Amino acid sequence: MGWFPIRITLELRKTRTGWQAIVRVHILD
Question: Range of 15's domain?
């Protein structure tokens, strides 16, 4: 009932100060 088809992707990005972690949540239709 409360379930939504989602996909979570984790992206590491190199910046000047270090590493930045970006979490993206995609809702699948």
Answer: 1-29
